[in-house]
Specification:
By secondary structure, the chain is an alpha/beta fold. It comes from Salinimonas marina.
Length: 330
């Protein structure tokens, strides 16, 4: 057979050959209600990471494990990494980390409005403070020795300790506080009060074993994908948050981000003060508004773009049946 024909056949065979299948990544994390869960329960971090890997074109399986099992599964190679690694822990030398893809703000809350005067960890010293072991067992919190911590095995138990008046304060994430207040509001109960500002600020990162194929380029692609998701409205949808803030144009001012695909409590400027900050910038007169990826320079135009959104009170992501006993004793 002439060489030219052989070359042509080789090209045809190459074109018709199936594309190599990417190996499925396997990531794990420990449970944190509304963030990490399984069996169909609301899980914001699951949603964010699954969507990011889908856009990256990488197949992915997520597993929820107890912290002790999670670490050994990563070390043994059963898992490629942790998709909910918290900045409150020291980074490990055998792991590579993404940029924080979701901030974690730990506030103090209480039934008593005096908590609004709390602005620093030392202000908690004279009272018992409930906390979930998910946070208490981190390197950062373990170093805080002057607080009377009431450690709890779960988020539910931490809220129950506060409800039973066995703790004066509870330290937990802002998003969990918001979901608990939604439960209380739905039952016409008095909502908890928050500290003046977050007492601890951290973030969730994707952590991959250093021996994972192309680990650095994959983390870079993950970071870039997250950047897009934070601006196009999908973060609002996946988090169930009407408004987010982040500097999207590099001018040093936070910009407002929203989506018409999310249920809005109200289409009014007052709701902007409850926006979740994705970075450390603050809004000012130069802030713009990004609705489903489209930028608007005025708040009037932004709310006009949201006219198709459903207006109402979103149900809590916490399970009402599970928290019923707490609500009854509140």
């Amino acid at each position: 057979m002439p060489l030219r024909v052989l070359s042509f056949v080789a090209v045809i065979l190459l074109v018709l050959s199936p594309a190599p299948t990417l190996a499925e990544s396997r990531l794990g994390a420990s449970q944190l209600p509304t963030y990490v869960d399984d069996e169909g329960e609301p899980a914001r971090l699951n949603n964010l990471v699954l969507e990011a890997f889908k856009r990256m074109g990488e197949p992915l399986t997520l597993e929820m494990m107890r912290p002790a099992f999670l670490g050994s599964a990563i070390l043994s190679g059963k898992l490629d990494g942790d998709y909910a690694s918290i900045d409150l822990n020291t980074q490990k030398s055998n792991m590579r980390y993404s940029k924080p893809y979701l901030p974690l703000y730990l506030y103090a809350v209480s039934k008593n409005d005096s908590v609004k005067e709390v602005a620093l960890i030392p202000h908690l010293q004279d009272r018992r403070v409930a906390i979930d072991n998910r946070f208490a067992n981190t390197d950062t919190i373990r170093l805080i020795k002057d607080v009377k911590w009431g450690r709890n095995p779960s988020t539910y138990d931490a809220f129950k300790q506060l409800a039973d008046n066995r703790a004066y304060y509870l330290v937990t994430s802002r998003l969990l506080i918001d979901e608990f207040n939604r439960l209380l509001r739905n039952e016409n109960e008095e909502m908890v009060y928050l500290s003046a500002r977050p007492l601890v600020t951290a973030g969730f990162r994707l952590a991959l074993r250093e021996d994972v194929d192309n680990v650095d380029s994959r983390l870079q692609q993950f970071n870039q994908t997250i950047e897009i998701m934070q601006q196009d409205g999908s973060y609002n949808r996946l988090l169930g948050m009407t408004w987010l803030t982040k500097d999207i144009n590099g001018d040093g001012s936070a910009d407002y981000i929203s989506s018409a695909q999310v249920m809005h409590q109200a289409l009014a400027p007052r709701v902007l003060e409850h926006a979740l900050a994705l970075d450390t910038t603050s809004a000012d007169n130069s802030s713009v508004y990004v609705i489903d990826g489209t930028t608007y320079t005025t708040i009037e135009a932004a709310f006009e773009a949201l006219q198709s959104a459903t207006v109402g009170a979103r149900p809590s992501l916490l399970d009402t049946d599970i928290y019923e006993r707490i609500l009854q004793r509140w």
